[in-house]
Prior knowledge:
- Helix content is 76%, strand content 0%.
- The protein is mainly alpha-helical.
Amino acid sequence: MTDRAIASRPSLEQVIAIVDFMEKHPALALGQLRGLEGRDESKKLWCKLTRIVNNITGPTRPMKSWVKYWADKKSTVRSKVQSGGGDPNTLCSNIEKKIWDLFLSNDAGNSTRNSVKLESHYTEEAFFDDNMDQNHESEPVLNFEESTNIEERQMRVMEKLVKSMGEQAMAMMQLAHASNAHTQAMERLAEASQIQARAMERLANAFETISSTTHDIGNAIVDIDSTMKRFYTTSPT
C-alpha cells in the first residue's frame, strides 16, 4: 500500500480543488440536489470530483470518504465561527474563510442547525441509499461506491497473502526435512548393502576354501586307496 493511501489528512492542493469545484456547483456543496434525478446528478459530480482530487498529491480516498470530508469540513468551519461569537474573522485560513463566505454565511440560528442536520442526513444516508428505483439504470459512479472499503479489503488480502506465504514456507521446510531424512535413509541403506556385499564375498571365499580343502581331501583318499591296493598286490601269499 502506498504512502498516499495511508495518509489521513488531505493536502492543501486537494482542499483547494474541492472548494473550487464546490464553488462551481453550489447545489452540490449545500446538499440541495434531491430526488432521484438530484441523487444521480450528485453521484456524477462526486464521481468527477473524486477523480480530480485523487489525481492530486495527497491521500487517495473512495468517493464516500470525500463526501464525509466535505460535510465535516463545513461543520468544522461553522463551529469555529460559532465559538468565536459568530465572527468569521476568527477563522485562521483563507480556505476556511472562503468556505464560510461561499456556503455558510447565509446560515443563521436554528435554521442553520436544521439545515446542517438535513444536509448531513442527505450526504451520509440518502446519498448512498441502496433502495433506489430498481428499474433505474445504474451509473458507472456506483463502482466508486463499491470501493468504499478498498483499503480495508487490501489489508485483509495482504494478511491472507502473508499467511499463505508463511504456510507455504512451512510446507517447504517440512518437505526439506523429509527429503533430508530420505537421503539419510538411502545412505544407511547403501552402507548396509555394502556390508552385505562384503559378507557375501567373505562367504563365497569361505565356500571356495572349503571346496578346495574337500578336493585336497578327496585326492588324499584316492592316493591312500592306490597305495593300499599296491601294497596288497605286491605282498606274498
